[in-house]
Amino acid sequence: MTPITSFVGKTVAVFGLGNSGAATAFALRDGGCEVICFDDDERSVGIASGYGLRTANLRAANWKDFDALVLSPGVPLTHPRPHWTVERARAAGIQIIGDVELFCIERAKLAPEAPFIAITGTNGKSTTTALIAHLLTAAGKSVEMGGNIGAPVLSLMPPSADRVHVVECSSFQIDLAPSLNPSIGIHLNVTADHIDRHGTIENYAAIKERLIAASSHAIIGVDDDISRGIAARRSASGRPMQRISAEAPVDNGVFAGVTANDGALDVRLVRVAGGMPRVVANLSGIGSLRGMHNAQNAAAAFAAVSALGVADEVIAEGFRTYPGLPHRMEEVARKGKVVFINDSKATNADSTEKALTSFREIFWIAGGKAKDGGIDSLRRYFPNIARAYLIGASAESFAATLDGHVPFEISGTLDKAVADAARDAAAHGGTGEVCVLLSPACASYDQFQNFEHRGDVFRKLVAALP
After folding, report:
1. pTM for the full model?
2. Are 278 and 302 in contact (CB under 8 A)?
3. Which residues pair with residue 146 across a beta bridge?
4. DSSP 8-state class, residue 377
5. Which phi-psi region, left, alpha or beta, contains residue 445 (left: φ > 0; alpha: ψ -120 to 50)?
C-alpha cells in the first residue's frame, strides 16, 4: 500500500467504496488523514464499516469540514449530470480528485523522479500495460502494476527511484487527476466511447490528451485522426515524444511492418531513430500478440521499455514469453484444426474489428447488449466469417445486418452457440486452421454479470466439448 501522508491532519470525504475507493480510504487513513466514507449502496457502507473504516451519511454532512472529496472513477463527474457529492463539494469550494491524483501527489513528495509509466487509449491499454510490466519484470526490474487494470493504484508499493510503476488510466481517472505527470505517458488511440460520461468525443479526447500533455516523454499512436492531432500538438511543444503505428512508417518512433517470409507474413517492429530504421523484433508466431492491434500495443511497449534502458534483445525475448491477458484474444483450446479464442473483452465493434482481421474462416459468436452503431462498421470483414452465431438482446438486429452477406443462425444463448460453432468448425472443409471466435461486439449485461463472467463461461463450455 501507498500511505498518503500529504493529507496528514486533514479531513477527506471518500465516496464510492468499491476496490479503488476502499484502497483509497485505507491509504489516507494510514497516512494520518481523517477519512469519512460513504456510498449510495448500503451494503458497501456496511462492509467498509466492518473493516474499521469510519462511515457517515455524507448527505447530512457539513461539507465545509472537508478538505477534499476523493471520488471513485465510476461516479459521474460531469455527465450525464454531476453526482450529488460533486455538487456538494463544488458548493463548499473543495477540490474533487481521485486515487491516481493522490498517487501523483505522494510521488511528488516522496520521489518525484521515480519511474512512472501511465497508459491510456480507448482500446489496447490493458494489454499494453500488462505487456510493459512483463517486459520490465523479465529485464529484472522491480515493477508495480495497477490502476484501471487489476490492483488499485494506492494498493501498490510506494513510488521510489528503484521501482517502476506501470499504471493503466481510464478517462474517468484522468479527469480526476489534475497533476498527472508520468515520466512516460502513452496514448494509444481514440474511438467513440463513454460519450455518455463525457458529453462529446472532443471532450473525451481532450481528457485523454491530458495524460501525455504533462509527461516527461510521450509515446503516441497515430493510427486515427484525433490521435494524429494530439501527436502534432505534442510535437509543436518541442518536448520529447515518439510516434507509434501499426499501419505506416513513422519518422521517429516504432512502427509495425508486414513482410513475406517463405509464404507466410511476418509482423516486425521497426524502430526509427535519427532517420535510420532498424528491425528490433518479430512478433510472428506469438499467439498472445496476434493481430495488428497487438502490433500497436507491442510498439508502444517497446518504445516505453527501451526508453528505460532495456536492451533490444531483452525486449524481443520478453515478447516471446508474454502470456497475454484473459478475455483478450485468449487462446483457450485447440481441437484438431480448430482454435477457440476468447475475446469477451471486445464490447464494441471497434474491438471486434481487431479480432476479425486476425483470422480467416471464422465461426463467430457475437451479440449481447449492443452499443450505438451495432456492427455496421464491420461489413468489410464479413468475407472472413464462415458463419455467425448470434446471442443475447442484439441477435435480431445483428441478423438484419448480416442477412445476405454472412450465413448465420440465432443461437440465443452462449452454450448453444459454442456447441453449434464447434460442430460446424470441425466439419469445415480444408486443412487450414479455422477459428471459433467469441468476440461479441456488445456489452454483456443482458445475460452475464460482466465480460469476465461471459469469458469464463465460454472457457468452461469449450473445455466440456467432446
Report:
1. 0.89
2. no
3. 167
4. G
5. alpha
With cell 512516460, the residue in question is 184
**58-75 tens-digit pLDDT:** 999 999 999 999 999 989
How far apart CA 90 and CA 67 sit, in angstroms, is: 12
> Cα torsion for 420, 423, 425, 426, to the nearest 10°?
170
The owner of cell 458529453 is 199
Sort strands 330-335 and 408-412 into parallel, antiparallel or unpaired: unpaired
Q: Which residues of the chain have pLDDT under 50?
A: none
Contact in structure between 67 and 12 (CB atoms under 8 Å): yes
Residue type, 441: A
Q: What's the CA gap between 29 and 183, in Å, rounded?
A: 28
- Ramachandran class of 438: left when φ > 0, alpha when ψ lies in -120 to 50, beta otherwise: beta
Q: What value does the mean pLDDT of the chain take?
A: 95
Question: Which uninterrupted H or E stretch holds 293?
Answer: helix 292-307
Q: What is the pLDDT of residue 260?
A: 63
What domains does the chain contain, in order, with CATH numbers? 8-97 (3.40.50.720), 101-320 (3.40.1190.10), 330-463 (3.90.190.20)
